[in-house]
Fold:
Amino acid sequence: MNETPLLPIFSEGTDPGPSFLNLLRRVAPDSLQMPQAIPGQTLPFELAHGTTVLAIRCEGGVVMAGDRRATSGNSIANRRIEKLFAADEYSGVAIAGTAGLAIEMVRLFQVQLEHYEKIEGAALSLEGKANQLSQMVRANLPAAMQGLVVVPLFAGFDKRRDRGRVFSYDAVGGKYEEADFSANGSGAVHARNWIKAAWSEGISADDAISISIRSLFAAADEDTATGGPDLVRGIYPLVAVINSEGFKFLDETDVAARSQLLLDGPERGGSA
Structure:
């Protein structure tokens, strides 16, 4: 029995290659369309916004963390939102800005990286991943002009350089590598000041974890949109370590114990 040969899905010159985004542009362009900005017009309703996230380069990798609060105007929209995600095995992305669009961007980014690896048989370099995310942020510019801004943080372990790297972005997709640490969101200035005072070259991952939790606590103390540790509800920051072994979330019981020590403080009998 003769079998009919399979015809190529794309004609010559239109193959999207390993890019899932280009594939969507070919087969489902409507799925990538963003709302167009209308000059002088703002949204007639409030959306949930994610706030403070951070990334700290440390010995052997990177520590990333984010608080759990999302706000809508002057109200708390969600107390347990997740702002920190694994992008792939060796990288992570944290979100600040319009929560709904940011989470969708992260999901698309995760699929983009997985699709590339399946097609090419090898993962993108860390620099290539950072560039892919930059393109997604730039594609959101029309929505950002309307006030729907998404500003992520990206970090990971670069196997080629055997070290952790941190990348920040602006609303138009500009990508900037940070030499040591970065923070985004409404409480970022307070978190950044605390990290700057405590960070040093070659800092251990354990110390970076403690600094990240303390800096989020400092941000929550000054910024109402940033949520601090909530011992009553059992809500604590999300913290992850990325190193040569991959991306791993810190166990919640560990974060809870560190948060309790922080809240006790030396003046209450706790450790410094």
Summary: DSSP finds seven helices and 14 strands in the chain. The two ends are 78 Å apart (CA to CA).
